[in-house]
Amino acid sequence: MAYYFFPPNGKAPSIAPSLARVKRGVGTSEPGMNGATNGTTHAPYPYHTDAEPDNPTVIPRDTLGKFHFTFLIRHPRSSIPSYYRCCVPPLDEVTGFYEYMPCEAGYDELRRMFDFLRSIGQVGPGFARNPINGHTNGDTKPVNGNTNGDAIHPEVEVCVVDADDLLDNPAGIIEVYCKSVGIAYDPGMLKWDSEEDQQQAKEAFEKWPGFHDDAFHSSDLKPRLHKKARSAEEENLEWVEKYGEKGAKVIRQTVEANVKDYEYLKQFAIKV
After folding, report:
1. Is a pLDDT exceeding 50 seen at residue 66?
2. Contact by Cβ (8 Å): 126, 137
3. How confident is the model over 76-133, as pLDDT tens digits?
4. Tens of pLDDT along 138-154?
5. What's the whole-model pTM score?
6. Are 5 and 59 in contact (CB under 8 A)?
7. Residues 6+ positions from 169 with CB-CB distance below 8 Å
């Protein structure tokens, strides 16, 4: 999702026109619109708006400040082939996504957004941690030496959840997560087997057919049975079998292009 918060193709950022604040009472201009006139549209980018200093996104800092951010990550070797499958036959007829775009992986954008929010003090410097062992997940120093007290949310911890950790220990990770975001933990959170819960799940996922079928057809979250880690060669053979040589090559290239950013974020992930 972070991919869509950034300008395309590494272009210089400017605030999305729909989010630019309009100041009334002084003429008819809209501050930040950089010469835009009524009825004039510019599509799709660049926006004819001003940028905010150091903000790499198209979202104003005061809008970002209204949210409590959690960063959910997954190793590219799992996420990339999963998304690729949704963009090729036969599943593309269900999802409506007919072209796989490697740039949509979004790891680079997520890392940059993570660093930006830390640098302005919206998240951190504290970390979500296991209250029993006090694990702090690495360096607790603010990024770029930001010690000016300019924290938008001084009590919002850095909260990164890795999908593999969640699947290995759902109860442990969710309990620490709930503590971090101020929600009372209840083991019942890991089950949605009632008719009411199933209906809620259906309504939540029906907008994205084909993408969340496994979740939609589930009724609980419990520790997965561990599988032997596969080698790159074994992964390649599986991808070639499923998607052909060309598809396997695109997947491998995309995985390798995003591993570094994933591993950077992984160092901050909740541990229990």
Report:
1. yes
2. no
3. 999 999 999 999 999 999 999 999 999 999 999 999 999 999 999 998 888 887 655 4
4. 443 433 334 333 444 45
5. 0.82
6. yes
7. 223, 272
Dist CA 13 CA 35 (whole Å): 17
**190-223: per-residue pLDDT in tens?**
999 999 988 988 888 888 888 988 888 889 999 9
Contact of 55 with 14, CB cutoff 8 Å: no
Token code pair at residue 179: 């503590």
The Cα-based distances of 58 to 16, 38, 113, 272 in angstroms read 5, 21, 11, 35
Whole-number Å distance between alpha carbons of 15 and 60: 6
- Two tokens at 241? 């079998």
Handedness of CA 151, 156, 160, 163 (dihedral sign): negative
Distance from C-alpha of 118 to C-alpha of 70, rounded to nearest angstrom: 12
Residue recorded with tokens 């499923």: 242
Tokens 């090559």 locate to 249
Secondary structure element (H or E) that encloses residue 246, with its range = helix 232-266
Are the CB atoms for 95 and 211 separated by under 8 Å?
yes
Q: Give 42's contacts (C-beta < 8 A, 6+ positions apart).
A: 36, 48
**DSSP 3-state assignment of 11?**
coil
Cα–Cα dist 118/120, whole Å: 5
Q: Check residue 257 and report its DSSP letter.
A: H
